[in-house]
Amino acid sequence: MGYIYEPLRTKHSIRLIKLLGRTPTGLVSCTLEQYEIDRAPPYRALSYYWGSPAPTDEISLGSEGSLMIHKNLWHFLDQMVLDNRAGHYWTDALCIDQKSVEEKNHQVAYMGEVYRQAREVIMWLGRERRAQDSMSILFEHVAMSPRHRCGRQRDLADLLAVPYWKRLWVVQEIALARSVLVICGSVSLRKKDFTTALIRCAEDTYTYFQDQWVNLQASRTEQRDSDIGPPATVSQVLRLVTLERKQQPLWQLISTFSQGICSDPRDKVFGLLGLRSLPHLRSTMAEGSPIMVDYHRSLNDMFWDVIFNCPVPEDKMQNFILELSRNMSISLDRIPSSLGDYVSRRDTSSPLTQTRDTALQTRTTALHIARTIKPLLTAPYSSEDVYGHDAYSELVSR
């Protein structure tokens, strides 16, 4: 019997997996339990990549039935059983009813809090034997002198070829964590030790900080790279694991990480909104931002929500529009007429701004930038047509 999700009781409710062990028939055994997040038992939140979209493996939920899950998630749960790491876990694929758009809207917006409250976040790099061996060998040698560490570049390349590093969601999952454990198969390291080892290995060969270094490993990773692009570089991984130390506005984070892989292109933005809770981002985009998680909205509408509500410096906005549109596969052949609503809306309570004039100025700037990319547009338009006569007259008269 398949598992049937019961609705979450309150807006602060979450589900947790309680990992028990195995059934007599060998299935991974667990239960799904609801808690108010402030009253939840200590739990670990999982940061991982889904892999194949098709569920392939069954787990038991006791008397409540069973669920089919993705291979990589099954590998993780199976490894935790093997390592005797029973306890409570949170993972999006199981703890969110993926068939309920309303629940996804709420829980995805709440994920920042889920990862902040977790006693530990686990970076699960998978269970591929080559990566597992590389991690073990690489970090056994990290305490040695540079002379003895020579030749470890291929092990580093194997480890960084893991698809995890290309996933967009891991950005906020790691940045918001209070404690991080990196696990690859049966090998585990604290994030601090992982980062230190990575830096030391990279110092041995400075070219590892260059994007071109992946060519050294091309022959060994060609097959694995075909679906996810080239392996991550050391600098990309270091940028990810040290993100909580950086003073960057949210628009810059979106620009930096929107190339990350996710199954829904809207997650190029939704997957980073949890970062608004970081202290150094609160001044650039408040929690009540008009950019809200809403999977009912079209990709195109959400894209323009970002453009018109993200406080991007004027000299950066053109590149921001072009880069984000490319990463989200948005066509710039037409600016939607609905954008007139943005210009005519003058909400003095906007969390982005303190005055209606600066709110309007943000949108005026975006209109100006839209004009500068007009050569890219295949459909002719006039500013008056796009925004409506009254809104456009107000713009040009100010």
Automatic annotation (TrEMBL):
Domain annotation Heterokaryon incompatibility: ranges: 43-173
Pfam families in the record: HET (PF06985)
Signal sequence extent: none
Record InterPro entries: HET (IPR010730), HetReg/Transcr_Mod (IPR052895)
PANTHER family documented for this protein: ANKYRIN REPEAT DOMAIN-CONTAINING PROTEIN 39 HOMOLOG-RELATED (PTHR24148), HET DOMAIN PROTEIN (AFU_ORTHOLOGUE AFUA_8G01020) (PTHR24148:SF73)
Protein name as it appears in the record: Heterokaryon incompatibility domain-containing protein
Lineage, opening ranks: Eukaryota, Fungi, Dikarya, Ascomycota, Pezizomycotina
